[in-house]
Amino acid sequence: MARNVGYRNTVESPDPSVQVSSSPAIAISSTLCHRPQTVQIQVEQEPPQNSPAAATMAAARPGLNILVFLGSVREGRMALRVGRYVQQLLEKRQHKVTILDPKELNLGEVEQPLHFYKDPSLAPVILHQINKQIQEADGFVVVSAEYNSGMTPALASIMDNFPPVSYGYRPSAIVTYSMGQFGGIRAAMQLRQFLSELTTVHMSSMIVIPKVHESLSEEGSATSDSLARASEAMCKQLEWYAHALKTERNTNGIPK
Ligand SMILES: Cc1cc2nc3c(=O)[nH]c(=O)nc-3n(C[C@H](O)[C@H](O)[C@H](O)COP(=O)(O)O)c2cc1C
User: Fold this and answer.
1) What is the pLDDT of residues 41-73, one digit of tens each?
2) In this structure, are 168 and 91 located in the same domain?
3) One domain for residues 1 and 86
4) What residues make up the domain containing 130?
5) Residue nearest (by alpha carbon) to ligand 1 atom 25
6) Ligand 1 geometric centre to CA of 170 (Å)
7) Which of 47, 158, 164, 211 is such that its CA lies 20 to 30 A from the CA of 218?
8) Does 253 fall in a domain?
């Protein structure tokens, strides 16, 4: 049954045997009909630009504090250009972006995660500093190449140092890349599991960048429109969840 929710419009059906109607929403489920089915497919749409609703929405949505984790320490890594792309993308949308680069932070392998110290005051100061940044973030973006069909060890290593509760009940968005044609999609699938374990809510829209060395310049500029479209979709989800979860955390706290 069609629900009445805010700004919506119709889209083309991917199935040519199905006609998509833009008339008011009545979905005819019809194995009995001899005519092709008419199906109302609805998608969320933002209010028209410059409308009062758009202005209210913009005013109600201050910039977010987003932490971006990079996942490579390799000499000649592509991670930096992907990180730059993500940073520019989010900054254009008025968000504050902090990049956590495992190469700069130089934490090495996980020797003792912060939450495994019997006396946390004995943990290195840097771990406390990063933990505070994680706790203060409204959301996360993780940037990973695909190494042997999975996420990179450098990304797991940096994130494993901190307790799931620090990441807890915040949204996470996945950005993967590879020099091949699949864009690190297998790493992305693994990341969904990993990010759930950290009690983040991962976004279904992801940025997956094939042939990263051609798709992005060293400065992080995209060479195709398709990347821009995927990025827009991911950002909108991240923003929606970040605001919704922040409100809920601030109002009702998190489960104990
Ligand atoms: C150890 C290692 C394993 C890799 N495994 C894969 C893989 O399974 N699938 C793939 O598409 N690319 C794979 N690649 C290629 C990387 O995706 C590509 O080199 C990418 O640029 C690596 O990211 P980085 O440059 O930021 O380190 C691998 C690269 C390395 C170094």
Assistant:
1) 444 455 554 455 544 555 568 999 999 999 999
2) yes
3) no
4) 63-246
5) 77
6) 28
7) 158
8) no
